[in-house]
């Protein structure tokens, strides 16, 4: 029995990174959503996830948690699906920029929580936020310049690196963050990808909302 458990498509950026790649490889798994920030959420997650977090891949008797670990699992089990770029230098760069996203950009994450279907005012562009934004713009433009010749994505064809940055692309759109023309062209390609179009539709259809207030996050039914 294979199950892929994620949080809300609209809000759970870690979930959609791994889910995009699960769908990219055609993973045959039952997709389930545990909506975040309801009173029962932690208990529901504790019953299945050692970290009480999503995403989570249950693969027969193996449980894999953490978005990057799931992506690596998919890369191992679907070697013909080009989860990472095929060429070694490109693959190394793809892993480096994905690890950088996974462990960094706390200011951007805090100031601009993912909310795919909504549009919000641009937050105050503090030096820390400007620095995160500039670094991301540089990652997109430099990677495309060095490796993107064969197509519109970071390494030409769609890869895990694009899935890792997809929630950042939607944040740039949601909060209308400043970006270069080349970053905009990359964003347009990501947002037009069929897997992203499907996620956009799913995010719009979800019945759950989350409000970010001074007392933390609160879930509600739309
Ligand atoms: N490093 C983890 C982060 C996972 C994470 O923080 N997931 C959030 C949702 S995006 C979560 O499950 N939160 C649990 C909760 O809010 O109760 C990964 O990459 O998968």
Question: In a few lines, what is going on in this structure?
Answer:
Helices cover 50% and strands 13% of the residues. With 222 residues, the protein is α+β, with helices and mostly antiparallel strands.
What does this structure look like?
The chain is an alpha+beta fold and 222 residues long. It folds into two domains: 2-80 and 208-221, Glutaredoxin, CATH 3.40.30; 82-197, Glutathione S-transferase Yfyf (Class Pi), Chain A, domain 2 (Up-down Bundle). The chain is 50% helix and 13% strand. The protein is built from nine helices and six strands. The chain has a four-stranded mixed beta sheet, with helices on one face. A two-stranded antiparallel ribbon has the order 5-6. Helix 1 packs parallel to helix 3 (67-77) and helix 4 crosses helix 7. The longest helix has 21 residues, at 127-147. It starts with a strand and ends with a strand. The protein binds glutathione. Glutathione binds next to helix 1, helix 2 and helix 3.
Strand-helix topology:
Blueprint: E1 2-6, H1 13-25, E2 30-33, H2 41-46, E3 56-59, E4 62-65, H3 67-77, H4 88-103, H5 106-111, H6 127-147, H7 160-174, H8 181-192, H9 194-205, E5 208-213, E6 216-221
Parallel strand pairs: 1-2
Antiparallel strand pairs: 1-3, 3-4, 5-6
This protein binds glutathione.
Percent in helix: 40-55%
Spatial strand order of the main sheet: 2-1-3-4
Annotated CATH topology of the largest domain: Glutathione S-transferase Yfyf (Class Pi), Chain A, domain 2
The total of beta strands comes to 6
Q: Give the CATH class of the largest domain.
A: Mainly Alpha
Please indicate the count of domains: 2
Shape: globular
Poorly predicted residue ranges: none
Gap from first CA to last CA = 32 Å
Hetero groups in this structure are:
glutathione
The main pleated sheet reads as: 4 strands, mixed
Radius of gyration: 17 Å
- Mean pLDDT, to the nearest integer, reads 97
